[in-house]
Amino acid sequence: MSPAAVFASFFALVLVGAPIAIALGLTGAAAAWLAGFPMVLIPTRFFSSLDNFALLAAPFYIFAGELMNRGGITETLITFAAKMTRWVKGGAAYANILASMFFAGISGTAIADTAALGKIFITGMPKQGYTREFSAAVTVASSMIGPIIPPSVIMIVYASVAQVSIIKLFVAGIVPGLLLGLACAVVVFLTGLRKGLPKGEIEAVRKPGGQLALESLLVFSIPLFIVWGTLSGAFTATEAGGVACVYALVLGRFVLRTLSGPSVIEALKSAIRTTSNLYLIIAGASVLSYVLTVTGAISGVREMTVLFAGDPTIFLFFVLAVLLIAGFFLEPGVQVLLLAPILLPIARALGIEEMQFAMVFLLSGTLSLMTPPVGICLFVAAQIGEIRIGRMFIAILPFLAAQILAISLLILWPDLVTFLPNLIE
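The structure corresponding to this sequence follows.
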């Protein structure tokens, strides 16, 4: 079964409405059967792909994010960010970006960022004079920071595939995450120069300034505590996920007193559903990837190393282009599971730094969340703001272009990515 036939079968299943995990598993099983493999391979690969200590971190971080989101932390972060930017034109838009950067250190996913912040910003910003399309576009674009600033669920998946250090990935994501935020802020600034944007403040929760600052500081301490603990050797990145859950539970339940018992149960249920979906996708993709590798179906792709010999920069721009195109059909997690095993050996053969390739790959992949037809964040924001997808996508194009430029900077200046991770060697 040729690679073209495999991917055509996968996309056909997706188009008829099959869940991604089912489409991956069925395509892999069909490819194995046509290749003459014993079918016992399917359940063996299915379960062995999940027998990975690094993946154990994912449910912890997902649960911690759910606890913080349901504990009223989102409103606190939004109000804190809004107070910091209320003095400038476009203050609410800058607050949106700043809140996304704050929230990224808690949720680790772009979808959670869009859903949580969108409920307040997409409905609140138009009351101050922003268009609904612009309000939603800022929310979606800034939510791309979620999977990049640590902790990050997609980085955990990438680490399990690429067999690289999770903590190095976390540290490597700090500067790129800030760069994405800066790219969004530049678009807001240029929009303000061209159209003019109002001053103003979105107050998601009413609290005294001192209390707001203290609570925000406590929230910010979570990602800092995770990074400090793993760098100091106090615990591994996986163990840090468990620590983050306990920290979030104690903070929300006993310190801030904003997290009720039923909310904890709901957070647990949501984390279980999200984790189960993630693990099914990983298992299904593992079967398909294994069959393609063993049958030599993707060996031709890896021979492209010769085409990029001596010019790794061109290869990284090629990766950016490939993932932009793939992003119209595949979500970031599936891109990591299917494309990283193909492209990563080429990057290593070309001598590209592991962390630079990882960040270019992950940032390029996350852009799929804001491009149709599978841009989940795009659809979530459009639903919240009751905006047509076409108008939504047009509004988001300047932010998409700015983030592509930001990724290009990471390609041209690898030290932006590698500086911090190299300090912990």
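The radius of gyration is 21 Å.
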